[in-house]
Amino acid sequence: MLLEEIDKSIKTYPDFPEKGIFFRDIMPIFSKPELFSELIENMASAPIFKDVEAIIAIDARGFLFASGIALKLGIPMIVARKPGKLPGHLITKSYELEYGSNSLSMQIESLKPFQKYAIVDDLLATGGTVQCVSNIVKSLGKEVLGLLVVIELSKLNGTLKLDFPVFSQISY
What we know:
By secondary structure, the chain is an alpha/beta fold.
């Protein structure tokens, strides 16, 4: 029932942000507090959280899910942000998207206390964004135990770039 309600709530926008891309919009979920709450409960029960010390949330929609999960589980949350959004001593890496390139930064101080992480985002497409976060974590000698997303675009084979388990609520 939950997954059917989520699926019905997700809107698809063809040719956004550019021609040929079908954008899956999770924002309507947030206008349904009971559905959002149930989704957070379901996501928080994923087995990847068993041994993690902190959650990494990916800019920006990943913040919305990771913060609820972190609060529910009492696990610290760290953010991976787009360029120019974080102060302090940063580690930054670039990555390719299905329609361009970008980079992500994380504060080194926020990563220091923890060794094992779960990554949370709204969507897995080609895997470039998640791989970027994983590369940041691993460059510091730390470990990613898994990824949790609401949507996986399975036809884009994003999981092939990752060397850890992926848990998705819905696949298209």
